[in-house]
User: Fold this.
Amino acid sequence: MKTFETMGREELLRALAMFAKNWLAHDGCWFLAAEERFGIDTAIALDAGSWARFAAAEARRIMATFGIPTGGGLPALEEALALRLYSALGGQRVEWSEDRQRLRFFMDQCRVQETRHRKGLRAFPCNEVGIVEFETFARTVDPRIITKCLQCPPDAPEGQYCAWEFTLSA
Assistant:
């Protein structure tokens, strides 16, 4: 019987990617069920409430597990973002401003939007939920972090997805 303790590095990485896909699929199934039952507006409100709880819990667990200090500023946020479960699926990147006062996060691939498109559904308007998710995650890492949405579907340019900017309050 195969267990995680007996797996090698490659098998563990495959398992991590599978868990990330399963987690995201569950999130999508939950959202679609809520959307079908209550409509998109109520589903978005419920989703935002769920992400407010999950993003904080995820940030706290990442920080505790990997020794990322609270109040570590934008470098701590960059490290924590790289350790989110979604990051195991790839398709995201960060860019620093030249003066290292701004950190930008880009979703270059979005399984949520790509799946909705494949199913013939309209683009998910992710700004409302995304600002809750990313702001909560960032402020859990460091309460001084200010989160700004640069773009989100359906208002993002064709072929682009969410982009966020993080700065520290003065």
In short: The longest strand covers residues 145-151.
